[in-house]
Amino acid sequence: MSKKLLVRSIVRPEKADAVLKSLFEAGYPAVTKIPVFGRGKQRGLKVGEVTYDELPKEMLMTVIPEADKDFVVKAVLQSARTSEKGNYGDGKIFISPVDEIYTISSGVKEA
Predict the structure, then answer these.
(1) pTM, to two decimals
(2) For the purposes of burial, counting CB atoms within 10 Å of the CB of 64, is it exposed (0-12), middle (13-18) or buried (19 or more)?
(3) CATH tag for 4-98 (out of 3.30.70.120, 3.90.226.10, 1.10.10.920, 3.40.630.30)
(4) How far is CA 73 from CA 9, 53, 54, 93, 110, in A?
């Protein structure tokens, strides 16, 4: 049984489609996309006297074989960056182990 990982990518909304396309082309079509709001270490964005401390992002979640982790992370990094070196607010990638997976319609546990 191959160990599975959950990859959660928090990306700028305008980059979500590029990341989805990159994952699809790399062979990972199964992705859950959720609109989220938050801030990083820079604590939001200040424009004049107004501080926006909850910025819109998209969370993309996919489950992958552990052996594919480096490949998937690289695909997300390349498609989510707003410049060659990246910028504050481009997002984060979180990797977590997945202990069990069940298909709801059949109740079958994946091997």
Answers:
(1) 0.86
(2) buried
(3) 3.30.70.120
(4) 9, 27, 25, 8, 23
**Tokens describing residue 101:** 């997976």
Domain borders along the chain are 4-98
pLDDT in tens, 9-65: 999 999 999 999 999 999 999 999 999 998 777 666 667 777 777 889 999 999 999
- On whether the CB atoms of residues 22 and 75 are closer than 8 A, the answer is yes
- For 3-24, the pLDDT digits (tens) are 999 999 999 999 999 999 999 9
Is 89's pLDDT higher than 70?
A: yes
